[in-house]
Amino acid sequence: MEDHTATRIVALPTPALRRYVGSYVGFDLRGFPAGVHCGPPGRVLTAVISLSDPLEVAAGVDDGSPVTRFDGVAGGLMCRSVAIHHDGRQQGVRVSLTPLGARAVYGMPAAALAHRLVPLDELLGALGVELVDRLRAATTWTARFAALDELLLQAVGRGAGGDRMLRVRPEVPEAWRRLVAARGRVQVGAVAAELGWSRRYLTERFRGEVGLSPKTFARVLRFEHAHELATAHDPLPWADVASVSGYADQAHLVRDWREFTGRPPTVWRRGEVLLGTG
């Protein structure tokens, strides 16, 4: 472990994309023990492009889900971690899309991708193939991020003359924004009332566009917060992680952690050889 190296570069997309794309993250991890990384669920849809060997990913951890190889993979919002099998090194770029980004970039609602892993070229066609090729050919992170801006703008532009975004009621992205801002610590009924909808109607519309109900999404956000605290360089004790992220107690955190990662927190921590890499 003394010889491992971890590079992580974060960049914002060009302003024209920021409604749809939250961030780019370039990563280059080398010299770690081989293992299985739990890619946790969170607030955004994630696409990952490998800059070296294909990614080996399963849609669940320790549940018998088949492992599939991807040069580039897109995932929707999920209620469980994905299992990323690695040999101690990973090199690639991660793109975070908002739910609106699914319509803008892929031409479909985020709900169509919920709980799924899909080859990027299946969604983007020749543009997805070009994206992988351009990122691998680039020799700097700046050039890779510039290629992402260029090609994702092309993907968005392909739907500019259609009605992709007109099909989305503005209350849905606003509900997503409010839940994210509160890290899930808000009553869904209160959000619905603020938007002028009933809780039932908000749940139907939100699930139909995003793929999760607002209540489930709030649970994912609370877990996401706990996961951020647990993966910090100087993590808090588990009881404090539970308290700060809004769980009733540590037992409540353990139950959700098992559900979202397939492992109890202590087992998860022992198995995560990539901890501390960001």
Give me the side-by-side strand order of the main sheet.
Answer: 1-2-9-4-7-10
pLDDT < 50 runs, ≥5 residues: none
State the separation between the terminal residues, measured CA to CA.
16 Å
**Bulk shape:** globular
Give average pLDDT, whole number.
93
Oligomer: single chain
Write down the Rg. Answer: 19 Å
The tally of beta strands, per DSSP, is: 10
Please describe the biggest sheet, giving its number of strands, its sense, and whether it closes into a barrel.
Answer: 6 strands, antiparallel
The number of helical segments is: 11
Order of helices and strands: EEEEEEEEEHEHHHHHHHHHH
The proportion of residues forming helix, as a percent range, comes to: 40-55%
Q: β content, as a range?
A: 15-25%
Estimated structural class: alpha+beta
